[in-house]
Write a structure and sequence with these properties.
By secondary structure, the protein is mainly beta. It has no helices and 11 strands.
Length: 120
């Protein structure tokens, strides 16, 4: 199982950014997929997940209405469109599959993540 996140960078408050996550080593199209982030000195936190056809999505309160999760099953790629970003969105962003029976991430292997820094 491998995850490769990309698309992060420096963005001004109120700006937008699109993150991507290329997944391999498992049946991407059959899995619920999810995004997480970890800010300095804090634990990794869940921020969004979507089912295989993006007909059901769930967001953390902190990002609902500003971030949109989507996926391209043909490319085994997960996306996160970030809008109206805030300084508190600064973190390293990761993706993983979701384990519905355990209500948490599915695989213990993580990618390197992609750094998002929101600053003027």
């Amino acid at each position: 199982v491998e995850f490769v996140e990309s698309g992060g960078g420096l963005v001004q408050p109120g700006g937008s950014l699109r993150l991507s996550c290329a997944a391999s080593g498992f049946a991407f199209h059959l899995n619920i997929m999810s995004w997480y982030r970890q800010a300095p000195g804090k634990e990794r936190e869940f921020i969004a997940r979507t089912n295989s056809r993006t007909t059901m999505t769930t967001y953390a309160d902190s990002v609902r209405g500003r971030f949109t999760i989507s996926r391209d099953n043909a490319k085994s790629t997960l996306y996160l469109d970030m809008t109206a970003v805030r300084p508190e969105d600064t973190a390293v962003y990761y993706c993983n599959a979701w384990a519905p029976t355990r209500l948490t991430y599915k695989y213990d292997s993580w990618g390197q993540g992609t750094q998002v820094t929101v600053s003027s």
